[in-house]
Amino acid sequence: MQHDDAPASRRAGHGPRPVADCGSFAALARKAGVLDALDRALRQTLPSPLREQVRFAQRRGERLVFLATSPAWASRLRLQQAQILAAAHAIGVQAGSIVVKVAPLPPAANAPEQSKPLSAAAALHLKAAATSIQDPELRALFLQLASVAETAWVQPGDAS
Questions:
Q1: Domain regions of the chain by residue span
Q2: Fewest CB atoms less than 10 Å from the CB: which of 46, 84, 90, 156?
Q3: HEC string of 70-101?
């Protein structure tokens, strides 16, 4: 049996909020900057292999929330709780405990692939397609693309 007056969320204040309730972009950028500085300050006290596998996520009252890439790294981070809390107190952050959640790190940004030039055969197909197009603007775009392909594939000494 379902109640008609059930709340939309079990925890008030958590979950998606309207953009208008999020504040200005400048305020969000300042908050992100503070969290990033806190992340760097807290993780620099950790041993090297652990430092790369965890991230500081947020502060909830007196709890510091971290993300770890696996349960093993989460356990290792929990063993460092006293060290992390001491570092937090040293920089003026009042914290009484840490919480570690397991979440894989986002993939590193890959460089976009270089676009490959069009072949001479592709240029011929574009020209052929352009002749059958009724719209003069679209036909001109096909011919322009075909001319770029042709110039990209002209070899020195070729007579075209």
A1: 24-102, 120-152
A2: 156
A3: CHHHHHHHHHCHHHHHHHHHHCCCCCCEEEEE
Enter the DSSP assignment of 11. Answer: S
Better pLDDT: 119 or 12: 119
Q: Which two tokens stand for residue 92?
A: 């003026």
pTM of the model: 0.54
pLDDT in tens, 24-61: 888 888 888 999 999 999 999 999 899 999 999 999 99
Radius of gyration of the chain (CA): 28
CA–CA distances in Å: residue 121 to residues 116, 117, 130, 150 = 14, 11, 14, 9
Instruction: Give the Å distances, CA to CA, from 158 to 56, 151, 155.
Output: 60, 11, 5
Q: Which CATH superfamily is domain 24-102 in?
A: DnaA, N-terminal domain (3.30.300.180)
